[in-house]
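Our consortium's second objective concerns turning raw sequence data into structural hypotheses that experimental partners can test. To show how far this objective has progressed, the report includes one record in full. It was chosen at random from the queue rather than selected for favorable results. The single chain below, 228 residues long, was entered without modification.
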Amino acid sequence: MANGKTILLIEDEPAMVLGLTDALSFEGYRTVSAGTGRLGVELAKAEKPDLVLLDLMLPDTNGYEVCTQLRRLSRTVPIMILSARSQDADKIRGLDAGADDYVTKPFSVGELVARVRAVLRRVERAVNSPASVRIGKADVNLAGHTATCDGHEEPLSSYEVSLLTLLLERVGESVSRDEILDKVWGVQAINNRAVDNFIVKLRRKVEASPDKPQHILTVYGHGYKLVL
């Protein structure tokens, strides 16, 4: 049942590590684990995992800093934060540090595994998307996860790439927030506000005037559409 995917688990709770390792191994994933942030970064360099599950409360360092270091190592590897911190401010901080998803403890192991599957499917879908696209004044490198506007290059998270890919597939059409949640995140795990936050971040990276967007447009009461 092995599927060739490697998942790095950075978590210091032995029971959590054991439970997640068993569940992920049953689904055919290869797992490697680290109990500290320092070891986690070292393993990420050595193993080049397909996905990282990262706890915020680590014994040696701040999980947000670990997330930032992991993102410097790779712009494309999905990072899912696991945390007991459930405030919106914590989630936004995690996303700003480079995470693609934020899972609040306690959680169902089954739900987490489903979200892992959804994230990896989304990454594979993005691989099959166009390598690059011009949106207004921005050159968007979907394969390289970057957007360059007015000479300034910004990294794109894997969720941002997936969201842009969906909008590109339906260019000129309105895509509802619910459809974005379903096709980009894969499960109804976050609320519409998170979609709005990602749209705001994308506009800052691809729009010449983010406050007056010309390409990623709001369709009030429904969702968003992309105009090239």
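The partners drew two points from this record. The longest strand covers residues 6-10. The chain has two domains: 6-126, 129-226. Both points have been shared with the crystallography group to help prioritize constructs.
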